[in-house]
Structures are given as C-alpha cells and as structure tokens.
Amino acid sequence: MERFPDAENQEPLLSVTVEPSPAETTKFRVRNLTKSSDAGTPILHGVNMDIPKGKIVGIIGPSGSGKSTVLRALNRLWEPPSGTVFLDGRDIRDLDVLSLRRKVGMLFQLPALFEGTVADNIRFGPQLKGKKLSDEEVHRLLTLADLDASFYDKRGSDLSVGQAQRVALARTLANEPEVLLLDEPTSALDPISTQNVEDVIMKLKKKQGLTVVMVSHSIKQIQRIADVVCLLVDGDVVEVLEPDRLSEAKHPMALRFLTLSS
C-alpha cells in the first residue's frame, strides 16, 4: 500500500507495511481530516488513511485520541470538511446522507432495538425504501448474524445484550451495506458473545467481501480479526501496521500504549 502524502508538502508521513493485491482497491480514502471541539480544541490533526476494500481495518489508541470521531466521519454522523473523506473516489459530502448510511452501516457499543419483534427490527430499514422483506430473507439475515429461527418472534426484552447486538447487526445488514463501521461493538459483552460477534464479522468479510472498520480498546481482539491496524494518538495516525507486527511500532506514545495494554 502506498505511503500517505502530507496534504501540504507532499512528503511521505507513514509507510504501510501491508502490500495490496493487484485486485485490491481503496474503499475509503481520508486526507487531512481535521476537527476541533466547540471550544476550539483540536481533536483531529489532519488524519490520513486508506481503507482497502474487503478488509478489516482496526483503529486503536489511547482514550481521547479521536478514534470514534474518525469513525463517525465516515458516514457523516458529523460532517467532515469537503475534500477530506472519499468513498469509492467520491467526496461523501456530495452523496445523499441517507443513501450513504445505507452503504456505510454502523454498529454501536450498546444495541438499541426498536419496539416490536426481532423480525420487525430487521425489516425496518428496507421498509423505509418501500421494500418488504420476506420471511425467508429475514431468516437468511438471522443466519448471517449467527441466530437461529427461534429468534424471529422474540422481542428485545427477551434477549441478552450479546443476542441483541447480533440482531442489531442483522438489522444493519438488511440494508445491504458495502462497509460496516463498528464502534466498540463487544465492549459490553461476555467472552462467548464477543467470540460470536467476531466470528460473524470474519464470516461477512470472507463470504461477502464486506469492508469493516473497527474501533476497539482491545489490542488482542484487533490482532485476532484485523488485516491492518491504524494507531491513533492525539488525533494523528502515527503508525499503520499488520496486526502481528504491532511490537514494531516506533512512535513513543503508541509504543507505550501497546506495552501497557498488552
């Protein structure tokens, strides 16, 4: 993968150690993404990253580094500046925001299911477009999320947090997204539920070629499932490495974070 150019002087900033295959293309391209708080405090200092199609990209770093802020820029949960975030080569500011969010689905830390049954939840997104999912399609989505047919008529109150998270995932997949954004999706789950969600994510990547961008505080989790890891420190991407080469990080704060977190 290419070096990330600096937006002002075009000098290389970082070297990515994962070489793309000839068929690999960039799904998201982020260039000089900046953001400040309402009080004017910088949150992101010109983030640059490439997210390859059909890969799982992990974003890790100390708390307050801007990980979730970067993630939320990718589907305009906050509006990035024009000319900073591109999906398949198009500035996302030029795309209809609802269409963008169907293409770029997001799963949050805690699942929030709507009123009604599991099937009602899964049908919700397509119904907004005037499409009624058949029972067969709902069951297919349940299977994708590693849930069996018995969940069809259950309600949110009948589910564990781990089961509800997988229903939320099935609901997101009903919109047929091209990219899945995950913001600490297993932090509230027990180890078995965490493994179930990780298995589903890896299955979606392998069988459907889904592009996944995942923020996690768990380095071990990122090492289990990611193809490439971006280390974010104080609003900057300071290292981009393969997950089994994180020990080679050179940035002092990134290295300290990795050492203390391992």
Automatic annotation (TrEMBL):
Annotated ABC transporter domain residues: 28-259
SUPFAM superfamilies from the UniProt entry: P-loop containing nucleoside triphosphate hydrolases
Molecular function via GO: ATP binding; ATP hydrolysis activity; phosphate transmembrane transporter activity
Keyword list, A-Z: ATP-binding, Nucleotide-binding, Transport
Keyword DNA-binding carried by entry: no
GO CC annotations, alphabetized: membrane
Transmembrane region(s): none
Any GO BP annotation: phosphate ion transmembrane transport
Record-linked InterPro entries: AAA+_ATPase, ABC_transporter-like_ATP-bd, ABC_transporter-like_CS, P-loop_NTPase, PstB-like
The family this protein is said to belong to: Belongs to the ABC transporter superfamily. ABCI family.
PANTHER family, alphabetized: ABC TRANSPORTER I FAMILY MEMBER 17
Protein known as: ABC transporter I member 17
